[in-house]
Automatic annotation (TrEMBL):
<keyword id="KW-0732">Signal</keyword>
<dbReference type="Pfam" id="PF13365">
    <property type="entry name" value="Trypsin_2"/>
</dbReference>
<feature type="binding site">
    <location>
        <position position="130"/>
    </location>
    <ligand>
        <name>substrate</name>
    </ligand>
</feature>
<dbReference type="Pfam" id="PF13180">
    <property type="entry name" value="PDZ_2"/>
</dbReference>
<protein>
    <submittedName>
        <fullName>Do family serine endopeptidase</fullName>
    </submittedName>
</protein>
<feature type="active site" description="Charge relay system">
    <location>
        <position position="160"/>
    </location>
</feature>
<feature type="active site" description="Charge relay system">
    <location>
        <position position="234"/>
    </location>
</feature>
<feature type="binding site">
    <location>
        <begin position="232"/>
        <end position="234"/>
    </location>
    <ligand>
        <name>substrate</name>
    </ligand>
</feature>
<dbReference type="InterPro" id="IPR009003">
    <property type="entry name" value="Peptidase_S1_PA"/>
</dbReference>
<dbReference type="InterPro" id="IPR051201">
    <property type="entry name" value="Chloro_Bact_Ser_Proteases"/>
</dbReference>
<feature type="domain" description="PDZ">
    <location>
        <begin position="304"/>
        <end position="369"/>
    </location>
</feature>
<dbReference type="GO" id="GO:0004252">
    <property type="term" value="F:serine-type endopeptidase activity"/>
</dbReference>
<feature type="active site" description="Charge relay system">
    <location>
        <position position="130"/>
    </location>
</feature>
<dbReference type="InterPro" id="IPR001478">
    <property type="entry name" value="PDZ"/>
</dbReference>
<dbReference type="GO" id="GO:0006508">
    <property type="term" value="P:proteolysis"/>
</dbReference>
<keyword id="KW-0677">Repeat</keyword>
<dbReference type="InterPro" id="IPR011782">
    <property type="entry name" value="Pept_S1C_Do"/>
</dbReference>
Amino acid sequence: MRRLWLLFAQTVTVGLAIWFIVASLKPEWITGGLGGAARSARLNSSSPVPMLEASPNATPGQNSYRDAAARAMPAVVNIFTTKGARNQRHPFMDDPLFRRFFGDQQEEKQFSLGSGVIVSPKGYILTNNHVIETADEIEVALSDGRKATAKVVGSDPETDLAVVKIDLPNVPAITLGHADQSRVGDVVLAIGNPFGVGQTVTMGIVSALGRNHLGINTFENFIQTDAAINPGNSGGALIDIHGNLLGINTAIYSRSGGSLGIGFAIPVTTVKSVMESIIATGQVIRGWIGVEPQDITPELAESFGLGKKSGTIIAGVLKNGPADKAGIRPGDILVAVDGQPVADTTDMLNVIAQLVPGKKARMTVLRKNQESMIDVLVGKRPRQPREQRDDDDIR
């Protein structure tokens, strides 16, 4: 029994000696056999206080979105615009003698900033119309430090989108995603230049889809997100966890000017169609019939004796417009266009805007509770001026 005890003691002593030697010379052999957290750590022997530090080769966890950010960030640019502004000219300024002593009136410049997304290797950049609409000069700064002057290809105030172009070689372009496959709760990242501090990435989720009736744009179908969007983010990218573009950040709901967790982005489906039309023709061509629509309220439904509240009341008809020539009259209730039901005025605007100008469309209307079909030769929607509003802010 004594021999067995002496053999055990000698074995333990030798084992501890080997462990001490390995721990001193090859500590990674020991930490490499521990759990996941310890496996990515190493002892910092140069520090006066021994500490474990993460290995530089440690892989990110499942909750990291750095690959998505790294993929999309090079395609998101900062946009700086300048606008010349003159003070009211004094009558004495027309006197050469006065100008000789006091100098000519100097032009003051106003500066603003926003963001944009490179969508083509040819240098086409998407941004918001309100970022560039009053600019005299537009400068684009890429994430790699390059800068270039941009020219406006075209804009669409009714969706608040614009396309500008730069002439630089080897520009990185973002990959377009599938916003129609997005669902509430999906993780998204917002990339832009908030408050001019530099390119910034924020994270959130898709809070809602198909937001409209907000009074921001004429045509609305927003993705709502709680990813922080602030002034300067306008025109920046909303991306999925793979780095694909889901939308263009355009506005926030705010009473203070800062993010309250309610931001809105124009979905890539709308962005793509508007962009292609602008690049091809310099503008967006939409259908138009020349009517003034009005939503059906419960009171109006009762006064018209309507059994259902869907559709839109034609409150006015433009003289000699497409609808007037076809025989549509004020008081008619439009319930369908080419067989597609119309829910309200917003729905009617979207449906008619998709019609091809120069072609006939069949309108289903109720007149004195009698349903009838009227063929209307669709016209081209006139360009509508965009109302001025604070950058990124809905009040």
